[in-house]
Amino acid sequence: MKDQHGALALESAAWRARAEAHRRRVAGWVEPHLERRGRGVAHPVEDFLFSYYGYSPGKLRRWHPGAGVVLLGADAREFGRDYLDTPEGAVLDVASLMTKRKAAVEFAAALLAATARRPAHFGCFGMHEWAMVYRSQEIRHSAWPMRLEAEEIAQVVEARGVRCSHFDAFRFFTPEARPLNVLQPTRERQAELEQPGCLHANMDLYKWAFKLSPLISSELVADCFALARDIRAVDMRASPYDLSALGHEPIRIETPEGRAEYASEQRGFAERAHPLRQRLLDACERLLGTTRSAAI
Predict the structure, then answer these.
(1) Can you point out the beta strands (E) in 31-77?
(2) Is 71 helix (H, G, I), strand (E, B) or coil?
């Protein structure tokens, strides 16, 4: 149902049901994380999305309908300072938000579009995690054992090479590993280099989703979180760490069978990421179109 201004109008029962369904969905991710945090125990897979991306459990829990939706019968105070009261109910103050967020939305749109246009590559075999520990005494996840000795890890890196196009993975490489990468990614070249087969580029769809919140629906944020969570598990299974005690059996990319398994997983994630990337890009373009229309 549309209101008199063309916005989507959600009846109270409908938006309350969506909000509750979202809270139930994310509870399975948030509550175990908070329980572990309370005990001072870290999980290298399940806690990564919270620790690395820095989007709080409380924000992930909160439901937003996205831009252009009137929540019939709602009070803006239920949803926060970014909402306005109307005679029908609460609505997101898109104009105010876009005055602050326009540049960020433009950047996300450009990066998402450039990545979507590029062909997917599946030949990196997750060597970025190996490059992060290559010939170094400092191990990022030191609470967990390695599957191979340090010299064996070095031999795999040197034999396979590294083909990482993602700056936010490359920046964690050891100094010794950086010259071994066939590319030298920088933040400035991000839109030029990111490609849709990259696990980290697809994991980062969650980052762009929460950065767009509350301008996009929380269901889309949660969809991107679910993909990123699955990618993180494969990312660490293919690493030199041994996480079998956590139920994550290794993908032994040092073997032909392991590389084939990794590439298969990578293709599957690229297929799952494609519609999410398009949904995010569509949302950005709608927001920017609204801003341009308002300026005319």
Answers:
(1) 69-72
(2) strand
Phi-psi region at 294: left, alpha or beta (left = phi > 0; alpha = psi -120 to 50):
alpha
Residue 293 predicted with pLDDT over 90: no
Q: Which pair of tokens denotes residue 144?
A: 């967990």
User: Which token pair is 70?
Assistant: 């009137």
DSSP reduced 3-state for 118 = coil
Bridge-based pairing state of the strands 8-10 and 89-92: unpaired
The pLDDT of residue 119 is above 80: yes
How many other C-beta atoms can be found within 10 angstroms of the C-beta atom of residue 153? 21
Whether this prediction's pTM lies above 0.85 is answered by: yes
Q: Which residues contact 107 (CB under 8 A, 6 or more apart)?
A: none
How many whole angstroms separate alpha carbon 274 and alpha carbon 205? 10
Residues in the chain: 296
Query: What is the strand order of the sheet 89-92 is part of?
Result: 8-10, 69-72, 89-92, 83-85
- Residue 93's nearest CA partner among 112, 60, 71, 61 is 71
Which among 211, 50, 237, 282 is positioned nearest to 126, based on CA atoms?
A: 237
| CA 186 – CA 9 distance, rounded (Å) | 44
What is the helix, strand, coil percentage profile of the chain, to 5? Answer: 55, 5, 35
Q: What is the pLDDT of residues 52-76, one digit of tens each?
A: 999 999 999 999 999 999 999 999 9
Classify each residue of 171-180 as buried b or exposed e, where b means 16 or more C-beta atoms within 10 Å of its C-beta: eebbeebeeb
pLDDT at 111 over 60: yes
For residue 290, pLDDT beyond 70: no
